[in-house]
Design goal:
With 218 residues, this protein is of the alpha+beta class. The chain is 12% helix and 26% strand. The chain binds S-adenosylmethionine (SAM). S-adenosylmethionine (SAM) binds next to strand 2 and strand 7. It holds the Pfam family SET.
Amino acid sequence: MAGLVQPQLAKNRILRSQTRQTVPDIFSEVDPEGFTVKQLPDKGRAVFTTKTFEEGEFLLWYRGDLVTRDVGERRDADCETCFRYFFTWKGTKWCRDASVEPTKQQLGRLVNHGWRGEVNSRMKIRENPHNEPELVLFSLKKIKEGEEVLYDYGVGDNFVFPSPTQLHSGVQDEKPEILQNSANLPPDPEKVCSPFYEPATQELLEPDGNFSQSNKPP
Ligand SMILES: C[S@@+](CC[C@H](N)C(=O)[O-])C[C@H]1O[C@@H](n2cnc3c(N)ncnc32)[C@H](O)[C@@H]1O
């Protein structure tokens, strides 16, 4: 009937228009406002919201060097960190390597894994103006002020993360800046932690704002 829109279609339309409007330029140097970092006993650093985000809103970029998967794996073999994000895009395997502690606040790399029922965000792939893939985090539902931002790393229900005392932040920059939150001290660079696992499925955010499913990794 004219004028009636199926609820799911309407929801998708809202999500598309929101993501089109709200993803700022990936090359802007700073993270958007609305987040802070806290140190948790069981997870190490964690990203919390300082304002409410609606469903489908852009949250953060996962910034890092773009390298091929082979290079990422070689780097992990040399010095394993938990900041290498492996993914498949247009049939090629890539890695965003965020191992170097940034001098500016870049919170996408600090978002922790959410277990079933906790997940409130999702990492998507978006092509930047240089035709490279960017990892962009979106809210999956309304996230109230003060909640931890969490997405599914794709590690499975039985995965056990190493304790935070084993966290390794990766290669340190020459002048690492202590981020604003006093609890946000960088982890001990001498320690190691698990690699970053590739989620089983990945959604691509096309330039027109539509989502499509990427190739699943073998
Ligand atoms: C990309 S880092 C996230 C930021 C990290 N918490 C930090 O302090 O730098 C991924 C690492 O955080 C820890 N982590 C993430 N999610 C976790 C969870 N749900 N429970 C326990 N540890 C978690 C694990 O050590 C994992 O290897």
